[in-house]
Amino acid sequence: MAADDLEALKAELERVKAENEALKKQRVPRAISFKVSAKGAVSVYGLGRFPVTLYKEQWLKLLELAGDLRKFIAAHESELKTRE
To answer: pTM for the full model?
Structure first.
């Protein structure tokens, strides 16, 4: 392989690496969506890598406790981490 070809490949590699980093920084968060699972549960997509799936009564119970959950999060703010 000629020196010019090697230099061209190195330059292309650097360009692609820079483009990849720029694309990572532009990552747009996915919209949250809901689906009914095959077993009849409610799946929430877009919060993480995998869906969060609970049955109807579990979601309704969790929604009833939303205020308590918010208080718990506020009380433990210093212990909790956020995703980046």
So the answer is: 0.62
